[in-house]
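YM 10:42: START-like domain-containing protein sequence, as discussed on the call
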Amino acid sequence: MSDKIKYEIEFVIQSSPQLLYQYLSTPSGLSEWFADNVNSRGELFEFIWDGAEEEAKLLKKKNDDFVRFAWVDNEDDSFFELKIIVDEITKDVSLFITDFAEEDELDEAKMLWENQVSDLKSILGSK
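YM 10:58: structure's back
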């Protein structure tokens, strides 16, 4: 197995941090933009896409700030984190995503996030 590369991408989102956090941290919110369906049992979240299921464990969360998940079947220390950043001066809200991907899948992984966040922006009425 090759080592995964950590990468970070940022998206400006026109939303309140409180509303955005609901879409990042709840099964109903995540199922609106991230997966076809999301179920949770405590710290375990089940993400469903086109009939395929992936389980992730909620590692950490802080209200209106961030959530961090790790895929259950991962054999490394990788995770994905969705962090809300508010600019102190302009009050602009950004979604800062940290994730890991194989080197040859990096562009595809970033494009997947761009598509998912585009869906999220549509739901929030953000440009």
